[in-house]
Input
Amino acid sequence: MAINSKKSLLDSKRKLVAKYDPKSPISEQYRTIRTNILFSSVDEEIRSIMVTSSGPGEGKSTTTANLAVVFAQQGKTVLLVDADLRKPTVHYTFKLTNTLGLTSVLTNQKDLMEAVNKTDENNLYVLSSGPIPPNPSELLGSKAMQLFLEQALEEFDLIIFD
Ligand SMILES: Nc1ncnc2c1ncn2[C@@H]1O[C@H](COP(=O)(O)OP(=O)(O)OP(=O)(O)O)[C@@H](O)[C@H]1O
Ligand SMILES: [Mg+2]
Output
């Protein structure tokens, strides 16, 4: 079972349908979500999005990663941030190591742009979670997180949080 679940975590082709099968009806649905998000705010440009849900395993990470892909495909520079410090999976989806990431930036061990990874999707950049701290919610609610967002908004058109 453990091997199976690890395998499914690593199966990024199935997860990143918007990247690997852009013509599929599922990818079209992600583009519809993209359009709906863009039209949800008329006067102000949307610069950051957080995807969350009430329970575990409801498809947050899958949705977030595919949304990040379709926004990047539209030409926006997108930073996908793995802010799920309880169960980070973005590094599996994009086949990255997770030795440094968001937590390294928040604790001032790395600069934002040193911790960000370029992906092979044009315009799409990824920041994995980094090592999991004992106090995740404290870190996410910190002043450092606010500064992080401000800095990220200077570098990217859109920040998407898992
Ligand atoms: N729309 C969907 N329909 C069917 N299965 C899905 C859908 N979205 C995701 N899944 C599958 O459900 C499982 C959980 O998805 P995912 O990891 O995206 O959820 P999550 O909400 O991020 O979970 P967690 O709470 O553990 O972070 C995965 O195996 C994924 O492939
Ligand atoms: Mg998840």
About this structure: The beta strands are 48-50, 78-81, 117-118, 124-127, 158-161.
